[in-house]
Design goal:
The structure holds two protein chains of two kinds. Chain A is about 70% helix and about 0% strand. By secondary structure, chain A is mainly alpha-helical. Chain A is globular and about 55 Å long. By secondary structure, chain B is of the alpha+beta class. In chain B, the strands form seven sheets. A five-stranded mixed β-sheet of chain B has the order 5-24-23-20-19. In chain B, helix 2 packs across helix 6 and helix 3 crosses helix 12. The longest helix of chain B is centred in the N-terminal third of the chain and has 25 residues. Classes of the chains: A mainly alpha, B alpha+beta.
């Protein structure tokens, strides 16, 4: 498949997944703030902090009020990771590979973009909170629908695997960021750790990952370490970090034909290392070294994987006049 | 909905022979429209337009911000061409493309037609579309122009004329196919009662045409559509055709010349491309052969082409025949190469480089259409009857400065088709042209039944180009 096309379908899926996760991100905070006892001040800054774009936000908006943060993350076209920007980018990518994806996929992306675009135009004409809750519901649903339509209408070929790869890596990254929000949301005082307010925040986190119900089946009580374990290391829950990177690894090996556990390029090697690490770490290890530090390090490693994928498959640098297929397959020794 | 009072008087109407009197071919359609409630057609029209928008059947407008997409305006009332009418057109189109192909092969090789004085040499050598780097080329099977869109119009008496030929990269077939898809779901019942020729097999014919260009020994040649990219006005069509044929859609940046072959960059390394349906103008194809500033094409492509290691459709150099001065010589080409009389007449054309013609044009600007010889899209033209004195003076100066660049034709009274106009349910006649698509495979010329009917949506306007506010209609060619 053309490198450019592989790149586009990878990013198409990343952007759709990103839009969905930004919606989850804001939605959970909206709900959380509604549940807060009156007198506890609203906290919207943590959302911007975890995006890593606080400086850009402050330059443009100043204070992190609910309205500013929601506007920034939802509709700001100057901000490349807002929901609307993501969908615009997703649509541009889809438009450049319409001949590769199914027409149903294109129609989903096209309709999805126009839906959010219309909401942006109507923004301010309605009850804001109500409008946004509905919008975020539709964004999440449209993202699921896109994934479903892709799964059901596109051949599960190389392009499909690149798309899955993009979606899974994006989901893992955003899961780490969502979990990290808890680090930044401050409890009014240290004595409140383990209180109902603390519990409510952990429940909100689970809900933002659509993980609440599945978590309850896994471990009935809300125990912070167990919540973190479920969201990071659970091998059965499709939105856990571990699940995402392992599935991503499988897709990557489907593309190259190399057996999992071996590697023939930098992408397989870096993702394999990450999978191995997650496969053998415990939640106690993570907590001892700091959850925030772990999540931060994980995001950096994920970026390295993305760089390797680009270099291996998407690079448009001039080709040299010799067979580039001259690869060596090495077996990892354990 | 009543069309009983529709009055085509003064014009040739494609659906009506007289006031309230549908042509035999159109009667079932008109009868059906007459049974509709007021507002039905408008609602169908809006639904169709929304469907096209959702499908993303759009074109880009350059003058707006980059990437602004518009739905090609679409009128719900189709144009109908009787089987008999079509039988008159088809051989004429075949004859024309056959002669044009022989002409292209000749002027890039022996140049007999110039040596014999049928066409003045200076006309060809001064045509911007005449590309010296193509001299001596012999495309596979001797075919230069594989895909043509020839623009036809009908005058007041119903006579067909060829308005121009488009031998470079004619657009529009995707709208033809998509409009039909939408109309079929809007008016399914009418399709059942009228024997309309199906058109869905165009992509198959196109693919066969392209495959026929691949070197014989290749068991599984790679065919690709080459596009300038998503900001090109016809990008939708490029991607649609690639998708419908199941072939790659490539851009210049995907390609490289390597080991003497054209190759595309894939996730598994370079891979050969054997046949390219290029939707890029000649001069952008290869910066080393043509325009050195172009970033759209592939350096070295022409060398690969000349070595016969990649086939291009259409061949580079075909644009010379799009020149409106060269167009005026097509009847001579038909007589010269085929020894036949032209079946389809040209619009009578005055060539401003001829002193006598120029004098006539300058004295009669008000009754003529003046066209720049090398512009498309309805740009660079003057419709005399709808112009101001200042505009005419300006054109007169242009003509005197560069007579070779201008032609003039009498203002034809283009035929019309009933069209939904305004915001309500009013139906009025609007002028149309017709662009049939012709595929030339060497041993066989295929004329796609129908083609793109463009309609001037403004009252009285004779300019049908989409860039000038024109729209499209579905074109139904009836079976016997």
């Amino acid at each position: 498949m053309l490198s450019r096309v592989a790149n586009s379908i990878y990013w198409l899926n990343r952007y759709i997944e990103r839009a969905e996760n930004v919606a989850r991100f804001i939605d959970v905070n909206l709900n959380l703030m509604l549940d807060l006892p009156s007198g506890v001040s609203q906290q919207w800054k943590p959302l911007v902090v975890t995006t890593g774009d606080l400086k850009f936000f402050e330059e443009r908006y100043g204070e992190a009020t609910a309205e500013n943060v929601i506007q920034f993350l939802t509709f700001d076209l100057e901000y490349p990771n807002s929901i609307l920007s993501c969908l615009r980018a997703a649509r541009e990518n889809a438009r450049s590979i319409r001949e590769i994806i199914s027409s149903e996929m294109w129609e989903e992306v096209n309709t999805f973009y126009h839906m959010v675009q219309e909401a942006a135009v109507n923004n301010g004409h309605h009850n804001v909170s109500n409008l946004f809750q509905q919008l975020f519901f539709h964004v999440k649903f449209a993202s699921h629908r896109f994934a479903g339509v892709m799964d059901a209408t596109m051949s599960h070929n190389e392009g499909w695997h690149f798309g899955q790869l993009g979606r899974l890596l994006e989901r893992a990254d955003k899961k780490a960021r969502i979990l990290d929000v808890k680090y930044y949301i401050l409890l009014p005082s240290a004595q409140l750790v383990g209180t109902p307010l603390d519990q409510i925040q952990w429940i909100a986190l689970l809900k933002s990952a659509s993980a609440y119900e599945m978590y309850r089946k896994y471990q009935h009580r809300i125990i912070p370490a167990s919540v973190a374990e479920f969201m990071i290391l659970n091998r059965e829950f499709p939105r856990s970090i571990s699940f995402c990177v392992q599935e991503a690894e499988r897709c990557l090996h489907q593309i190259t034909g190399t057996p999992v556990g071996t590697w023939c390029n930098g992408a397989e090697r870096s993702l394999g290392q990450l999978c191995a690490k997650l496969g053998y770490i415990t939640i106690q290890d993570i907590i001892e070294n700091g959850l925030h530090e772990f999540l931060d390090g994980f995001q950096k490693e994920l970026n390295a994987v993305d760089d390797q994928i680009s270099a291996t498959f998407f690079s448009l640098s001039p080709l040299v006049s010799e067979p580039p297929m001259n690869r060596q397959v090495q077996t990892l020794t354990w | 909905m009543k069309l009983e009072t529709y009055d085509p008087t003064g014009y040739y109407d494609e659906l009506f022979a007289g006031k309230g009197e549908p042509r035999a071919s159109a009667k079932p359609l008109i009868d059906w429209i007459n049974t509709l409630q007021p507002g039905d057609l408008r609602r169908s029209q809006e639904a169709a337009q929304i469907a096209l928008f959702k499908l993303g059947v759009t074109f880009n407008v350059y003058s707006d911000n980059q990437g602004i997409e518009k739905v090609f305006p679409f009128d719900i009332i189709p144009r109908i061409i009787s089987a008999q009418d079509w039988k008159g057109l088809e051989p004429g189109l075949r004859q024309r493309i056959t002669a044009l192909n022989l002409f292209l092969d000749d002027i890039y090789n022996e140049q007999r037609i110039l040596n014999d004085g049928i066409i003045p040499r200076h006309i060809i050598e001064s045509a911007p579309g005449f590309l010296k780097p193509c001299m001596g080329l012999k495309p596979p099977g001797g075919v230069w122009c594989h895909i043509t869109g020839t623009d036809l119009v009908r005058d007041r008496d119903g006579q067909w004329y060829v308005l121009e030929d488009n031998l470079r990269v004619p657009s529009g077939i995707s709208y033809v196919l998509e409009n039909r898809r939408v109309l079929k779901s809007t008016f399914p019942s009418v399709f059942q009662t009228m024997a309309v020729q199906a058109i869905d097999d165009y992509p198959s014919h196109l693919l066969e045409t392209l495959l026929s260009l691949a070197p014989d020994q290749l068991p599984n040649p790679t065919v690709a559509v080459l596009t300038p990219g998503i900001y090109n006005s016809a990008y939708y069509e490029h991607s649609f055709l690639a998708q419908q044929m199941g072939v790659e859609l490539i851009e210049g940046r995907d390609l490289v010349v390597l080991d003497g072959y054209l190759q595309m960059r894939t996730t598994k390394g370079p891979r050969r491309v054997d046949v390219v349906y290029r939707r890029l103008d000649d001069i952008f194809l290869d910066p080393t052969a043509f325009n050195p500033d172009s970033l759209l094409g592939v350096p070295g492509l022409m060398d690969v082409y000349r070595a016969g290691r990649v086939a291009l459709a259409n061949a580079p150099g075909t644009g010379v025949a799009d020149d409106k001065v060269v167009y005026s010589f097509v009847p001579e080409m038909i007589r010269y190469y085929l020894g036949e009389d032209p079946i389809l007449p040209n619009v009578p054309t005055y060539l401003c480089w001829r002193d006598q013609d120029r004098d006539h044009v300058l004295q009669n600007l008000e009754t003529l259409v003046v066209k720049s010889a090398n512009e498309a899209g309805g740009y660079g033209m003057l419709v005399g009857s709808q112009s101001t004195a200042a505009e005419r003076a300006e054109f007169a100066e242009k003509i005197k400065a560069k007579p070779r660049n201008y032609i003039a034709q009498p203002i034809l009274c283009l035929s019309q088709v009933p069209t939904l106009v305004g915001e309500g349910n009013e139906i009025a006649g609007r002028h149309v042209d017709l662009r049939p698509y012709i595929l030339h495979r060497g041993d066989e010329v295929y004329v796609h039944p129908g083609g793109l009917t463009r309609v001037a949506l403004k009252e009285g306007s004779l300019v049908v180009n989409s860039s000038q506010g024109g729209g499209a209609k579905d074109t139904w060619v009836l079976m016997d």
